[in-house]
Amino acid sequence: MSNTAGQVIKCKAAVSWEAGKPLVIEEVEVAPPKAGEVRLKILYTSLCHTDVYFWEAKGQTPLFPRIFGHEAGGIVESVGEGVTHLKPGDHALPVFTGECGECPHCKSEESNMCDLLRINTDRGVMIHDNETRFSINGKPIYHFVGTSTFSEYTVVHAGCVAKVNPAAPLDKICVLSCGICTGLGATVNVAKPKPGSSVAIFGLGAVGLAAAEGARISGASRIIGVDLVSSRFEEAKKFGVNEFVNPKDHDKPVQQVIAEMTNGGVDRAVECTGSIQAMISAFECVHDGWGVAVLVGVPNKDDAFKTHPVNFLNERTLKGTFYGNYKPRTDLPSVVEKYMNGELELEKFITHTVPFSEINKAFDYMLKGESIRCIIRMGE
């Protein structure tokens, strides 16, 4: 065990005191892990749009003060009672969803939606005892999606921690703990395009670019990017996108434009925007007989999906996915190996790097639409 095991650790964390206000670097106290938990030393973290969304408090019950962050790479500092798959010194990725290994979802080969550790954006405490592991002067600081990686040390449920190859660079693979796997898995695990096939990607943000990367890896020959911002098209070429459609450039529905481009529709479509219109277009642009559309984006709570049932009767398939259908502990190590053997390229997702002391710059880059992923170097 490490020499800090069982002790409270004092470290720096970027605390969000109120919605939309710059994060403040504070000294926090991080309690030792309890049963079934792990304390990680975070070395690199990156900013995801989900952090920004909840920091702005647009979509849920605001909960502050809070430590955000959920894409990260680190080293296990200590483990709580009963944790057997991790030990101090292991390299690990914390994940916003988990794998308890015991529930029906975990025992099913078809699901990654663990009953115990499924994402909960409203919870600001640990499942074990409904308390926080972070505090300042005895006052609790709330957790975010069970990870809170904008802290030099954090406590996470062991089922939400994937042990990875120690030779893999944590400053690159940290992006796998959320958005990249979400898009990549939507294509390779759910849409499953065949070599030589056509794939339409709706939305060319980080998740959409990862979906395009999945299509590239799968050997798709036509990868059509669909986005309302034409300036994104040039960057998308690095991810295998070789044709582009901006719906605003056409006076007919984009699904019709794509059907005409592809002699009846694409073989696969992956929707990564959360726009209900994009979801409908993605489904209606796939070819009858064999087309598959996969929904990734999270819609507004009042949205309803409307399409004619004949679209289903004509043998089009609509699927949804959560975290690319990856089981965090079981599957993430093999995704890391895809990067290590050169099959998956991660460097091109990383557009900016900042020291931890300048974490607010990462928010600025994302709000201005300048970054795909900004890596934050902890301890600087």
From TrEMBL:
- What is the enzyme's class at the highest EC level? oxidoreductase
Q: Which residues form the Alcohol dehydrogenase-like N-terminal domain?
A: 35-164
Q: What subcellular compartments does it reside in?
A: Cytoplasm
Q: Where is the Alcohol dehydrogenase-like C-terminal domain?
A: 206-336
**Which proteins does it associate with, and in what oligomeric form?**
Homodimer.
Q: Which family does it belong to?
A: Belongs to the zinc-containing alcohol dehydrogenase family.
| Protein known as | Alcohol dehydrogenase 1
Tell me which species this is from.
Answer: Flemingia macrophylla
